Amino acid sequence: MAKTELITLSLLFVITLSFTLVNGYGTVVGGKTKISDVKKNKEVQKLGRFSVEEYNRMQGRLRSNRGTELVFSQVVEAKKQVVSGIKYYLKIEAMQNGLSRTFESVVVVKPWVHSRELLSFSPYSQKG
């Protein structure tokens, strides 16, 4: 009798695990997930604007000419990753000297301490 119960419990465990894996297919814990409808996502657009403003602020400390500042246009693509906070990978369009350019930005948000930190900001490069 105990052996039958053990087999039954084992089968239930395997079936439950299978459904969990099937429902979670495509989502890896700690992996990047694409954010849909980015252009209408106000939070993502605010992070894009924050990225450009932080970049301009850091560049202003390095040089005195203000004519090369970027002007935020929009975030066109975004992914997020849960780490010790939420790490956002943004593809941003901005204007510089009247020309539209694309940049990549990484921002970490820790909502529980109300912090945002720009980790990187660089020109977008098509990765093959």
From TrEMBL:
Superkingdom of the source species: Eukaryota
Lipoprotein as UniProt keyword: no
Stored InterPro entries: Cystatin_dom, Cystatin_sf, Prot_inh_cystat_CS
The UniProt record lists the keyword DNA damage: no
Gene3D superfamilies (alphabetical): 3.10.450.10
GO molecular function, one term: cysteine-type endopeptidase inhibitor activity
Signal sequence interval, chain numbering: 1-24
Domain Cystatin: 27-124
Keyword annotations of the record: Protease inhibitor, Signal, Thiol protease inhibitor
Protein name per the record: Cysteine proteinase inhibitor B-like
Provenance organism: Durio zibethinus (Durian)
Gene expressing this chain: LOC111279746
